Amino acid sequence: MFLLPRLQQVQHSLRPVARTIASVKKQTNTHTNIYTNTRKTAYSKTYAAGFTTMASATTFYDFAPLKPDGQQLPMSELKGKVVLLVNVASKCGFTPQYEGLEQLHEKYADQGLVVLGFPCNQFGGQEPGTDEEIKTFCQTNYGVKFQLMKKVDVNGDKADPLWEHVKKERPGLAGMKRVKWNYEKFLIGRDGKVVDRWASLTKPESLAGIIEKELAKPAPSSL
């Protein structure tokens, strides 16, 4: 009989503490949600500024990845062209492929080939530089004149939607969609369809034959 009033007294004295804890927890959750939503909003704005999402895209020409200066390069401007996409890196064993890519650009640009290099730091951290540093490196060491794009991810949650599109259109061996390493190559025909996909070991100059074959095809009148 003595303990019950005492217990009730203790419970009563703890109520303000419980209310304080609940209030602090609520405020913490509120601030956490604000921080999370702010980050999501900031990323969404950046994402929307340069890309068309996979959900709203139906063709290669619906995408608009960013150039190093932050300006969009709408793929719709490349309708009727043959496009070679490559994820590039400056500190990779395959980096000398820049030379072969530039050769393709110089030989076939006037016939309708567009080479697009997308720097990516996802594979061994082999592209750590800024967009400006990458551009300077490529021009100084390989005389690159073809279009370099803004550094992107090609795999994962923040992957460039254009790369998500071409991976979906042309999966690799055993249906694997993800890019395995630097210097994977995707060739897009004059109709905006992915013609083929090649692994890092494939040298750019070895693609001359299939590029010539695609360049020989007329652009669809429906574009």
Provide a concise account of the structure shown.
This protein is of the alpha/beta class and 223 residues long.
How would you describe the overall organization of this protein?
The structure is a single chain. The chain is α/β, with parallel strands linked by helices. The chain has 2 domains: 1-50; 55-215, 3-Layer(aba) Sandwich (Glutaredoxin), CATH 3.40.30.10. It has helices at 3-50, 97-108, 131-142, 161-169, 208-215, and strands spanning 82-88, 113-119, 147-148, 185-188, 194-198. It has a 5-stranded mixed β-sheet. Strand 1, helix 2 (97-108) and strand 2 form a beta-alpha-beta unit. The chain is globular. The chain starts with a helix and ends in an 8-residue tail after the last helix. The relative contact order is 0.14. The model is unreliable at 30-51 (pLDDT under 50).
Features:
alpha/beta, Glutaredoxin, peroxidase, 5-stranded mixed β-sheet, 5 strands, single chain, about 10% strand, about 220 residues
Arithmetic mean of pLDDT: 85
Q: Under CATH, the topology of the largest domain is which?
A: Glutaredoxin
The number of helices is 5
Which class best fits the helix and strand makeup?
A: alpha/beta
Question: What can be said about the biggest beta sheet?
Answer: 5 strands, mixed
Helix fraction by DSSP (H/I, runs of at least 4): 25-40%
Topology pattern, helix = H, strand = E: HEHEHEHEEH
Q: Hey, roughly how much beta strand do the residues contain?
A: 5-15%
- Rg calculated over all Cα atoms: 26 Å
Termini, distance in Å? 90 Å
- CATH architecture field of the largest domain: 3-Layer(aba) Sandwich
Instruction: Write out the CATH superfamily name of the largest domain.
Output: Glutaredoxin
Shape: globular
**What is the CATH C-level name of the largest domain?**
Alpha Beta
Which strands sit side by side, in order, in the main sheet?
3-2-1-4-5
Task: Find the count of extended strands (DSSP E, 2+ residues).
Answer: 5
Uncertain runs: 30-51
